[in-house]
Specification:
Elements lengths: L1 E6 L7 H15 L3 E6 H4 L20 H11 L4 H12 L2 E7 L7 H10 L28 E7 L16 H4 L1 H9 L4 E2 L3 E3 L7 H16 L44
C-alpha cells in the first residue's frame, strides 16, 4: 500500500499520537510506503480565503469557482498543492483524530475544506451521460480510506442504543459525505473508546488491534454504501426508490444492506 496518514492531535505524547507512531511503524516494517501529514506539527492553516486561489480582491469570491479555476490553472496555494500531491500518490488514506464535539478537530476539517477542491476531489461529470460522478464514483475512485478515532466515551455509550449514538452515524459526514462522495471506498472505522482512561495493558491491546486492522486493510470489506449513479436512486430527484428499504429511515437508507 501507499498510505497517506493524516493526523490531527496537538499533543505528541498523547494516546492518539502514540497509536499514530505505532501504526506508521507497523506499515513500514511490513513493506508499505507511508507519507505523513501531521497537521498540528505542520501548523496547517485550516482557513479558506482568497489567498488560496490567487484571487483578485476586487472580485466577489465564489469559493467553488475560484478553487476550480486555481486548480486548473496551477495557481493554488503551494501548501494545498503539496497535500494534493500526497493524496494523488496514495492508494490509502488513514485519517486519525480525537472525536471532539461529535466531529473532527477544526484543523482537520479545514484540511478537507482547502485540499478537496472542485476538479481535484469532486466536480467531474461522466462525459457519456452528463451525470455527476460522486457518491461511489469520482476523481478519487480506486482509493480507500479509514478513520482512526479516539473518544473519551465508554464503549457501551457509542452504539445503536448508546447515548452518544452509533459510530457510523457520527462519522457519516466524513464516511459518506467526504470519502464516498469523492469516490473512495470506506473501510469500517477503528474506534478507541475510553481514551482518557487507558492503562499500559489496554494500550498494548489497542495497539495490537490497530496493527491487525492496518495489515488487513487491503482485504477488509468496505462499508456497503449505495452508489448514486446506480438503479437505486431516481436520477432526477436523487432520492432512493420507494421499493428499496421501505421500513428504514434516516442514514441507514444509504447502505445496500438496509432492510
Amino acid at each position: 500500500m501507499k498510505v497517506l496518514w493524516l493526523a490531527a492531535h496537538p499533543e505528541e505524547r498523547s494516546l492518539n499520537s502514540s497509536l499514530k507512531n505505532e501504526g506508521i511503524r507497523t506499515l513500514r516494517d511490513h513493506g508499505h510506503e507511508v507519507q505523513v501529514s501531521d497537521l498540528y506539527a505542520m501548523k496547517w492553516n485550516p482557513v479558506v480565503d482568497a489567498d488560496d486561489y490567487d484571487h483578485s480582491p476586487t472580485e466577489r469570491l465564489h469559493i467553488s469557482n475560484a478553487a476550480h479555476h486555481a486548480y486548473t490553472h496551477g495557481t493554488l496555494s503551494p501548501d494545498i498543492r503539496a497535500e494534493q500531491e500526497k493524496v494523488t500518490w496514495a492508494d490509502t488514506l488513514v485519517v486519525q483524530f480525537p472525536l471532539w464535539w461529535y466531529g473532527m478537530p477544526a484543523i482537520l476539517k479545514g484540511w478537507f475544506d482547502r485540499v478537496f477542491v472542485r476538479g481535484f476531489a469532486y466536480g467531474i461529470d461522466d462525459p457519456a451521460t452528463g451525470q455527476a460522478l460522486r457518491y461511489g464514483d469520482g476523481p478519487l475512485t480506486g482509493k480507500r480510506a479509514m478513520a482512526v478515532v479516539t473518544a473519551g466515551a465508554r464503549p457501551s455509550s457509542i452504539g445503536p442504543r448508546g447515548v452518544n449514538g452509533d459510530l457510523n452515524d457520527l462519522l457519516f459526514p466524513l464516511h459518506h459525505g467526504t470519502f464516498w462522495y469523492t469516490g473512495m471506498s470506506v473501510a469500517p472505522p477503528f474506534l478507541v473508546p475510553s481514551a482518557d482512561r487507558t492503562t499500559p495493558a489496554t494500550f498494548e491491546d489497542t495497539a495490537a488491534r490497530l496493527r491487525t486492522r492496518l495489515l488487513e486493510l487491503p482485504s477488509t470489506p468496505p462499508l456497503p454504501f449505495r452508489r448514486q449513479n446506480s438503479p437505486d436512486y431516481d436520477p432526477e430527484t436523487l432520492t432512493l426508490h420507494p421499493d428499496l428499504a421501505p421500513h428504514t429511515t434516516g442514514l441507514a437508507l444509504h447502505y445496500t444492506d438496509a432492510p
